[in-house]
Amino acid sequence: DVQVSTFYNNFSLNCRGKIVDLSTPLVMGIINCTPDSFHASSRVQSIEKAIVLAQKHLNEGASILDIGAYSSRPGAENISSEEEINRLFPIVEAIRKKFPEVLMSIDSFRAEVIEKVLPLGIDMVNDISGLADENILKVIEGKNIAYLLMHTQGTPQNMQDAPTYQNVSTEVYQFFKEKIALIKKHRINDIIIDPGFGFSKSLIENRKLLNNLPLFQLFGIPILVGFSRKSMIYKTLNTSPENALNGTSILNTFAVLNGATFLRVHDPIEATEVIKLLKQE
User: Fold this and answer.
1) Catalytic residue at 97?
2) What is the tens place of the pLDDT at every residue in 240-252?
3) Separation of alpha carbons 219 and 167, rounded Å
């Protein structure tokens, strides 16, 4: 059995020369430059709305803004790289100009998209594809950009069709072991792992993975979890994404107590409160 530990650790990240202290978990606020992401309040399709949402997230305790332009909900439309860049670039540019010191993560799995926004000053790449495009590593190699590796099977269009595992926890662990070795070959040492809750996993598999979250502490690198308003919550509770905030907070609490270092959320204030309450001594 893996020893369960609380969130106190000695982790840090180097993001473009900025040393980010992870001795206490951080909150990542979601900004979707899409018309079809599953939670409507996270969608922004104008610079003005993106700035408002970014300011709201920061006011509510987010330390990182995660900006994406490709919807990853099950069955989402597959858009071109050009369309993704057209959605993403002006909003990333505006947020960087408005908030020059904020840590900014780009939610994309395409090397050409990352390469295009790189000069705007991004700090992290959030790759939900499980490193489907290894050219991403070449793009960020030597740039002091953190790389967030998420586990999944398939694509957003088919990932929930028939996910199959003999043992979801050990298979996700083996996936990380192999991919981390590959990433380090590119001299990228600031790595975060995300088990990919809700991506190519059944409700039962999500639960098994959550129960075994301490297993992934064995890598000795930060762990991100993203439960926010997902179907693993609202389907279990027979409700909707709009009514899944309480469930999100409960799972975030469990995750932090079991080693999570980042909480990726639509609602930073509630996630910040989870961390503050657990940090009390």
Assistant:
1) no
2) 989 999 999 999 9
3) 19
